[in-house]
Each structure stands twice: as C-alpha cells, then as structure tokens.
Design brief:
The complex is a heterodimer of chains A (117) and B (107).
Chain A lengths: L2 E5 L2 E3 L5 E8 L7 E7 L5 E7 L6 E3 L7 E6 L4 E6 L8 E9 L2 E5 L3 E5 L2
Parallel strand pairs in A: 2-11
Antiparallel strand pairs in A: 1-3, 3-8, 4-5, 4-9, 5-6, 7-8, 9-10, 9-11
Chain B lengths: L3 E4 L2 E4 L5 E7 L7 E6 L6 E5 L3 E2 L7 E6 L2 E6 L8 E7 L6 E2 L3 E5 L1
Parallel strand pairs in B: 2-11
Antiparallel strand pairs in B: 1-3, 3-8, 4-5, 4-9, 5-6, 7-8, 9-10, 9-11
Classes of the chains: A mainly beta (117), B mainly beta (107).
Chain lengths: 117, 107
C-alpha cells in the first residue's frame, strides 16, 4: 500500500524557517517524481514544487521561488521541503504527492504550517 | 501560466442524479488534465487522469471527457459518498495549475 506521511509542520514567525519531511513507503520511491502542493485555509490547491526521481531537476512556483527548496533522499525514501523567509501567505496545509505522468496519484494526509507572530 | 476556469463553483444535486463539472483552460492542454475529489478534512484523491482515464479503484460512475481547452467530469447516479469538492488540474505545462474547485452538496 502506498503511504506518504508528512511531518515538520507547526507555528512559525514570519521570516523564520521550517523544514517539512515526507516519508514514503509501499512503492519504489526512486522511480517517481514527487511534489509538494499546498492549500490555504478554505482555499483551493496550489502547486509548490516538484522534483525528478533522481533529484537532479526541480521546479518551483513563482510564489516560493528563491525561498523554498525541494530535495529528496532516495536511500531514506524521504522527500523534503525547506521553507525559508516564511510569510503569512505561506500559511496552508502542505501535501506531499507522488507524481505519475503529470497527475498526482497518491497524496499524504497533509501537514499544517501557520506563519504568524 | 495556463489558467483553469472551473464551473460551477457550487452544485446541489439529488441522490441518483447525474452531475457535470466543467473546466476550461486558457490554451490547448492536449488532454493533460486530471480531476480530484476532496472530502472535508481529507487530502485530495485522484479520480481521472489524461482527461478520460479512470484511476485505479475509482467507481465507474465517474467519467471524464473533453479535448483542447474544454473538459468535463461527469458523475452518474450520485451517491451520498460523492459529497465533496472537486478540482481539475492541468499538467500539460509548468506550472501545474488547478481550477478553483466545485463544492458538491446533496439537495
């Protein structure tokens, strides 16, 4: 069974940093591109970042480019999102998702990040 | 960026009814479209990919169609467990973009 379990969320002050993790199991992690997608409270879905299966190619949404860094450790089957210079508008539930030919076929349960002083 | 315009924003339907949700892309996305269902407090679940392919385990009452810039999701014989929000997503070109969502409720 495919499982994606996010961790690392919480309350953080504006301008500070936070690192999210996503532990994958039930599939060969190194065979799949992965992504982070977020959802602000009562809002829609926003793609944040994607990374290729080997980790060499990354893409970022304009709203996080230069502040967030996506990475992966295939030996640990874990995806990461380093979030720096956080802003109030980054407040959202962050989902880890497996990317399969463009669509996201499996999602984690999500982790809440609240940016507030 | 490719803009996805989803309609309607909300929808009320009766059990057993057929409902249709639509997404229009700002340019041709060549069937690079997925549909997701999200129940309250839960993560999104893939329903349809490549515009018309049913994801594993998804009931056959869900179907997708369309081409070019116009796509739709149809739910036949609405069940109570279909109450949820539905989102489209284009993945033809980066950045991936989502529709604003359709909230489906029971009448």
């Amino acid at each position: 069974e495919v499982q994606l379990v996010e961790s690392g969320g919480g309350l953080v002050q504006p301008g500070r940093s936070l690192k999210l993790s996503c532990a994958a199991s039930g599939f060969t992690f190194s065979d799949y591109n992965m992504a982070w997608v977020r959802q602000a409270p009562t809002k829609g879905l926003e793609w944040v970042a994607s990374i290729s299966y080997g980790g060499s190619n990354t893409h970022y949404g304009d709203s996080v480019k230069g502040r967030f860094t996506i990475s992966r450790d295939n030996a640990k089957s874990t995806l990461y999102l380093q979030m720096d210079s956080l802003r109030s508008e980054d407040t959202a539930t962050y989902y880890c998702a497996r990317r399969s030919y463009g669509s996201y076929d499996y999602w984690g349960q999500g982790v809440m990040v609240t940016v507030s002083s | 960026d490719i803009q996805m315009t989803q309609s309607p924003a909300s929808l009320s339907a009766s059990l057993g009814e057929t409902v249709t949700i639509e997404c229009r892309a700002s340019e041709d996305i060549y069937n690079g479209l997925a549909w997701y269902q999200q129940k309250p407090g839960k993560s999104p679940q893939l329903l349809i990919y490549n515009a018309n392919s049913l994801h594993t385990g998804v009931p056959s009452r869900f179907s997708g169609s369309g081409s070019g810039t116009q796509y739709s999701l149809k739910i036949n014989s609405l069940q109570s467990e279909d109450v949820a929000s539905y989102f489209c997503q284009q993945y033809y070109d980066y950045p991936d973009t989502f529709g604003a969502g359709t909230k489906l409720e029971l009448k």
